[in-house]
Amino acid sequence: RDSYDWVDHLSITHMEITQGALRPSNPNAAFFLRDSMFLKDIPEEFYSSFVDDDQLCTEQLKKLKSHLQLKFPDQTFGYRCSFSDIADNKVQLTDLEDFCSQVVQFFKDVFNKKYPEDRLQHDTLSLELLPHNTYMEQKGQLVLGRDTELEKLMQFVTTDDISSLDMLTDTTLDVSQREQDGCPVMMVVAQPGTGKSALMAKFTMEVIQKFDNVLYHFVGCGPDTMDAANILQRLYKKLDKSDPGEKEEDKEMTADQLKERLQTRLQNFGREERLIIIIDAVNQLADHNSTTHLDWLPTAFPPGVRCIISTTEHPPTVSRLKDRQPPPYKLTVPDLDKNTRQDIVTRYFKRYNKALDKEQLELLTCSDGSSNPLWLAIACEELRVFGVFEQVTTKIQSLPPDLEGLLSMVISRVMQEDETGCTEKMLCLLECSQSGLQETQLQMLLGNPETTTPLPLLTWSQVHRSLKPFLRNTTGHLNLPCLDFFHNSIRQVVQETLLGDQAAQQNYHKLLADYYQGQCAIQQLVAMELPYHLQQAGLHSLLVEFVRKDPRSLQMGMHSRQKYMNAIRCRTFIPPGGFHGGHVAQIVICRMCSMQMQAFTPARTMNKDTCVVCGHFTPFKKEQQKVHFCMLHKPPLVPPGQDWCLVCEKPAISLRGRQNDPAYLCMMCSVGISANRCAKL
Length: 681
Hints:
This protein has 681 residues and is α/β, with parallel strands linked by helices. It is 42% helix and 10% strand. The chain has 25 helices and 17 strands. It has a 5-stranded parallel beta sheet, sandwiched between helices. The protein has a 4-stranded mixed beta sheet with strand order 16-15-14-17. A two-stranded parallel sheet has the order 1-2. Helix 25 links the parallel strand 14 and strand 15 (643-645). Helix 17 crosses helix 20, helix 21 (502-518) runs antiparallel to helix 22 and helix 22 packs antiparallel against helix 23 (540-549). The radius of gyration is 32 Å and the shape is globular.
């Protein structure tokens, strides 16, 4: 009675309506009240099945109907029906078309309200926010034991006196340095699984309630979010009050130009109003091990701008941040205290109407790993599904104290209990994906590739249920709903335990490449995913063929084409003046091939005006853009005075005194690290 709020003298149905609709004012509840006119036609012996002769119950029903119509006028409907026949000793009713249409229409209205049809027709900024909002809502739902950290972060963004910020952390700056350099960054540091992202998500949810100008970015929550350029572009557009959309001139900006213009906008913005910048998990950025990691992040911001970033104890990231002048404010996320641990465990098991006894609760929360929220959550789930009640205490004692060890143990247990043979494959597919996979994609990939038959729904539900504790719903490319690992630590464990062999990784990338090549019907998705998996699988010749011959590759952005093609390009440096020692033919496009099209791209551009690496339209050329090959890839020996055509791969002779067109690269394929490189793919 206490557990389920039992109400005396009410039927089960009445209590279900009370608890499920009336008390929470459920917007998704619908009530269909049947007209009693049909009762006059039913046989007398069946009358008691439709009418209660108890006076109290009759009055309760009248009162309930009246209350529903009063509280839910738009969710209460009436309908009529007719008596049809008696079949299998049951009354059969007819004329229910009106009832059916009302039910269907109600569900359509509810779905359209929650998922409006124009949800994908929002502006660019709204679409970019979608994966960040989804991640924030999932992570920030329940955060316990972090009140002190939340208060310090809120003080950092709300205070106007920069000098008072020294009290929040151990960082101390002299007054002259502070006034000269502006407000440093706030660096939130934590061990993996300590709840850093949950803290940042909860804090972001609180900040957007108080400030209008907030830019939040959760690295790894969706595609492109691990690219530092994506953060710069989002911030640049956020600061553009005239037009938040992407302009053509902005697309042509280099990274240095973008950083320079961003600094100017930040200075102007910081003088006028408060701006909050929140970036979670910068240690997961794609360039986290490069020499330019975090070079894009200003060392200090104007007094009106507050920037908070979070990271794990990733040495390159922490070192680069600490070496800045002025140094950042540092907030370390501490371990959970014992009371918070017990509260988390109690709440977790209460959701399933379970509980640990005092000894078991003490044993679990005193474990070395229990100070880590992720370890504690995984341990609770492992104990929840453990089937032998008498051995729960022994099970707690056997849990590895480190996060990686616990994850490895749980994943091994899941695979041992797997009767479908699909859990390991699904884990590996998710690890090899760029930003998760859709459920329909996983069903096809786990099904029969020879007959292109998806995994049966019953089998899929078993696989999904066994791996559900490791997964989260996210948004992938084109804002399509996907499944992915809910924490980066799971990805690392899967990579180390199941994909330690490079050949195994390449096999899964090939499997994904085959799917996108032959089964995916969304051309934009193919253009985003297929080149990546072909590159990771080591299928470079197929990558070149796709970019140059497949019309779907035209959906790729020019930056993507250049990135993938230059990644598989020969890295040999060509010295100024070329190689010496014997005649080396000039790389050209002969007169016949120069006027033809589509040798380097599916687009209809003449070969002589096309970059031979990425296929970009290149009508204007410079001397430094000419194509050269290294000694390893130089063309076959040809007689002096003749050139080598890159298209037809034959000696090219000048006709009627007209010189052949040299083969050229575009500007992006001939500058920076690509300058003076062999052009052989």
